[in-house]
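Sync notes, pocket subgroup
Present: LS, DG
LS reminded everyone that the earlier model was apo-only. Rerun requested with zinc ion included. Inputs:
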Amino acid sequence: MPQQVRGVVARAKGQPVSVETIVVPDPGPGEVVVRVQSCGVCHTDLHYREGGINDEFPFLLGHEAAGIVETVGDGVTDVAPGDFVILNWRAVCGTCRACLKGKPWYCFNTHNAAQPMTLEDGTKLSNALGIGAFVEKTLVHSGQCTKVDPTASPAAVGLLGCGVMAGIGAAVNTGGVGRGDSVAVIGCGGVGDAAIAGSRLAGATTIIAVDVDDRKLQWAKGIGATHTVNAKSADPVAAIQELTGGFGADVVIDAVGRPETWKQAFYARDLAGTVVLVGVPTPDMRIELPLIDFFGRGGALKSSWYGDCLPSRDFPYLVDLYRQGRLDLDAFVSETIALDQVEEAFTKMHHGDVLRSVVVF
Ligand SMILES: NC(=O)c1ccc[n+]([C@@H]2O[C@H](COP(=O)([O-])OP(=O)(O)OC[C@H]3O[C@@H](n4cnc5c(N)ncnc54)[C@H](O)[C@@H]3O)[C@@H](O)[C@H]2O)c1
Ligand SMILES: [Zn+2]
Ligand SMILES: [Zn+2]
């Protein structure tokens, strides 16, 4: 029997979200119903509400979640009812050209549930990042469930389901940050601070946090930044160069995703350095640069989707590091909120009051 539960829907561009009745079908072949225990509010949810991702309204928002598998459909063998899982948006197919080349983190054909969740009147919902988890129960593909140690706090480890994994992976997987490297991170929200945490784990010795908000810079220090720069009061390019012997950082991560921050990242890296764009730009944004500056500096300009992670490889070891006290995921949970407080959480995010508001059920 399909179940009726409560979930957070964005019905139209720029309009406040609302809590609605969501119809969750029984799991079909390869599908799983998960009882959601926690779901973080990511900036990408706000991008969806603003129409910045696509126009496929109404959206069922939320995608940074942990929960318990409730029921499984035919043919599901990798998870079973009762398993504690983090939801992921990279259930790799194993057969596309990226997977066949042995680079499944680029998978071009990731799995989502085949059946839609709907509103009571039958209107099909678009699920944020193929998940939709600001909802008491959600329907996903079994590959979107990564089983991890059940003793971990759902509110903390659920953040690995998107922003924290995206940030750590942007540094470690995409940026290739290694021991002794200098790193600058522009934008110290949940994603940028996770890039700082990842750089620290990887052995970077200079980690420069850049933001326009002093509170954010203070939190970034707590997570592992060795230096901070307020881009409102200092030119971040000059400041990063000064803190790196006049040269620029080995890896600069743009966790804002605007032309001006990307340009700062471009000019704040050392010769042969790497720029990683992990913040999500909107379709109207443009960049103009002298081509010679690109050629002359060498190095790599990369973008990072989900930190180039493989959930099955990365979530379990990051949960272990968390449990060992080596990765402070609790520091990312600024507050826990109820399902009907997501709109307020967007406002707080907009004002810079939180790293992550996390809905707990
Ligand atoms: N690539 C991915 O896979 C992926 C995954 C999750 C989120 N994201 C994206 O990453 C970005 C950050 O997400 P978040 O959840 O951390 O958002 P957030 O709103 O919590 O953080 C953004 C931070 O950037 C700072 N900022 C804004 N303008 C700035 C500027 N000009 N210079 C310096 N700092 C500035 C803000 O003060 C804030 O601290 C968003 O665009 C989000 O959509 C990408
Ligand atoms: Zn694939
Ligand atoms: Zn996200």
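DG: The first strand starts at residue 3 and ends at 10.
LS: The chain has a mean pLDDT of 97.
Action: DG to write up.
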